[in-house]
């Protein structure tokens, strides 16, 4: 990949991100900020880049059903011209349960990539949200790589075998809290929401979890894997498991107080 993401980044939903936080995260040494649920006008990405000096900004993801490819391509060129080499466009097909017009998502992704090609958005600066083998192959062949969400090191290992030399940048939720019950409650509150979405539950079943595990709100075993908790050093070990399994970069999503969590983890991850 032409753009450097660094080994570790930050993933937060777009409503929680702002320029001041971006400056803090850059100062802590994180390599990339991933904008969850990114608006397709890319104005927030531009604001985060304006406020910082070197950190990469990526969308994780722009939903292809919400924003047409021409609009997104125009926004990409605006941002990239202003901040060359610092922006990555992540796109994905979202979820059947959350998009009324969800038909043939694989073909929709192909068509969207065709439109981005026609608009001159380089393959080296785009990634796909990918879980299953078919979309992982598409990410390998038509993008710089894949940005899987709600996965484990077991999935990372499997995805890496498909992607080969292409980028693999999974997301990992964490709760910086040494009280297991309190941390698990915080993790389950978020993880349980995703267990309503069939693409996630199918993927988790493919990689070692049972029907009971993925039944909302999720078993302790599932929650502990998808929302690591404990002292920063314990969490750092869990993040390292993705890297040892073949990830090029891990996008860390802190659940709870953001800055204290990212500060504690930055020290442990050094």
Automatic annotation (TrEMBL):
Domain Luciferase-like stretches: 20-248
One Pfam family this sequence matches: Bac_luciferase
GO cellular component assignments: cytosol
GO MF, one example: oxidoreductase activity, acting on paired donors, with incorporation or reduction of molecular oxygen
InterPro entries reported in the protein's UniProt record: Bact_Lucif_Oxidored, Lucif-like_OxRdatse_MSMEG_4141, Luciferase-like_dom, Luciferase-like_sf
PANTHER family registered for this protein in UniProt: CONSERVED PROTEIN, LUCIFERASE-LIKE MONOOXYGENASE
Protein name per UniProt: F420-dependent oxidoreductase
């Amino acid at each position: 990949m032409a753009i450097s993401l660094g080994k570790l980044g930050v993933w937060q939903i777009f409503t929680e991100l702002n320029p001041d936080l971006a400056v803090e995260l850059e100062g802590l040494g994180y390599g990339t900020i991933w904008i969850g649920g990114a608006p397709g006008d890319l104005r927030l990405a531009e604001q985060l880049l304006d406020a910082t000096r070197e950190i990469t900004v990526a969308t994780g993801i722009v939903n292809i059903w919400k924003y047409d490819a021409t609009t997104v391509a125009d926004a990409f060129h605006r941002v990239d011209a202003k901040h060359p080499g610092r922006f990555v466009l992540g796109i994905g097909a979202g979820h059947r349960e959350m998009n009324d017009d969800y038909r043939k998502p694989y073909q929709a992704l192909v068509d969207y990539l065709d439109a981005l090609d026609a608009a001159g958005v380089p393959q080296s600066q785009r990634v796909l949200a990918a879980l299953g083998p078919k979309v992982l192959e598409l990410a390998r062949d038509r993008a710089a790589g894949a940005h899987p969400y709600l996965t484990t090191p077991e999935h990372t290992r499997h995805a890496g075998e498909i992607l080969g030399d292409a980028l693999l940048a999974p997301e990992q939720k964490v709760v910086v809290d040494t009280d297991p019950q309190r941390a698990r409650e915080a993790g389950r509150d978020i993880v349980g929401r995703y267990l309503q979405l069939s693409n996630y539950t199918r993927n988790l079943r493919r990689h070692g979890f049972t029907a009971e595990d993925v039944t909302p709100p999720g078993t302790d075993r599932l929650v502990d894997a998808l929302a690591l908790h404990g002292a920063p050093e314990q969490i750092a070990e869990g993040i390292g498991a993705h890297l040892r399994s073949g990830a090029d970069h891990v996008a860390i999503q802190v659940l709870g107080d953001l800055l204290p969590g990212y500060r504690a983890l930055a020290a442990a991850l050094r």
